[in-house]
User: Which sequence fits this backbone?
């Protein structure tokens, strides 16, 4: 409840950051309520009001659909010569979880996300959970405004701005470097590296890549797949770039 009151006290600050003022302030609070808190709507006392609030899952669902529509329209209009596959790939770069995480980070919203820490523990600090908040925020702006235009404004002024600033980092994090390396080596008739997880802790996985039984690269990630991808990228940088 203390963190929810923090959101309530900082509403003006949050609205200034996202450049949108809510008519229904409680809708903005709902954006930050993770599903680990409660599954069904719950009555909460906020300020002088008793309100029935849901977790952010439904807003996230709505925001995901709206964001995909806006991003699809954007790339369709911006790149008239792109094929369907190219349009889809570029749209994915804009709407993927890592881009939305960078938006979340850029807006400095981490202090407002409310979890049930007892049930989630270390998993509460999860990039996917952070990106979900941005989708919920998009959904909430649409519901509050009853219009697509404020959402497009948020997309154009904030999401695209962050995407352009961090494009290289975004591509590096979401691209399938392991698959790319495999394809590259196979075309050259070379054997593939082998990946071994040598450490797993609360922070994630640490993986070593071996080539011809020699350690050539390493990578760290929140998941085993992510750590292997980073090890493949490290391999590519050392051997080809």
Assistant:
């Amino acid at each position: 409840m203390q963190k929810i009151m923090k959101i309530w006290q900082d509403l003006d600050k949050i609205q200034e950051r996202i450049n949108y003022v809510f008519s229904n302030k409680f809708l903005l609070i709902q954006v930050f309520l993770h599903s680990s808190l409660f599954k069904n709507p719950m009555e909460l006392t906020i300020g002088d009001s008793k309100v029935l609030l849901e977790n952010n899952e439904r807003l996230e669902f709505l925001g995901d659909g709206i964001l995909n529509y806006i991003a699809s329209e954007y790339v369709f209009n911006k790149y008239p010569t792109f094929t369907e596959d190219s349009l889809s790939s570029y749209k994915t770069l804009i709407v993927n979880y890592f881009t939305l995480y960078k938006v979340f980070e850029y807006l400095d919203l981490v202090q407002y996300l409310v979890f049930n820490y007892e049930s989630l523990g270390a998993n509460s600090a999860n990039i996917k959970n952070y990106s979900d908040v941005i989708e919920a925020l998009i959904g909430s702006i649409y519901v509050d405004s009853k219009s697509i235009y404020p959402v497009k404004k948020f997309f154009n002024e904030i999401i695209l701005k962050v995407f352009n600033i961090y494009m290289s980092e975004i591509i590096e994090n979401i691209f399938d470097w392991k698959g790319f390396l495999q394809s590259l080596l196979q075309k050259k008739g070379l054997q593939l590296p082998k990946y071994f997880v040598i450490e797993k802790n609360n922070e994630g996985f640490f993986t070593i890549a071996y080539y011809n039984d020699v350690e050539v690269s390493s990578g760290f990630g929140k998941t085993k797949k992510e750590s292997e991808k980073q090890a493949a990228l490290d391999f590519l940088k050392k051997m080809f770039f």
